């Protein structure tokens, strides 16, 4: 359930990036698009930073036995 909203933000970030490439620097919306892109990238980075330690703690190396779930 949590993946879908994050996926939507990821897709929106890509759209903002493409839109910014095709928007002239002199256009009045250019700074606003830059801000929106920066905000969405920071949001995705913060989510990634929170998820990475959890993934590492859940990873079991080959030959090891995972602890029983509580």
Automatic annotation (TrEMBL):
GO cellular component, one term: membrane
Name of one Pfam family that matches: RhoGEF
Single annotated GO MF: guanyl-nucleotide exchange factor activity
SUPFAM superfamilies: DBL homology domain (DH-domain)
DH domain location: 1-50
PANTHER family cross-referenced by the UniProt entry: BREAKPOINT CLUSTER REGION PROTEIN, BREAKPOINT CLUSTER REGION PROTEIN BCR
The name this protein goes by in its record: BCR protein
Species annotation: Crypturellus soui
Gene for this chain: Bcr_1
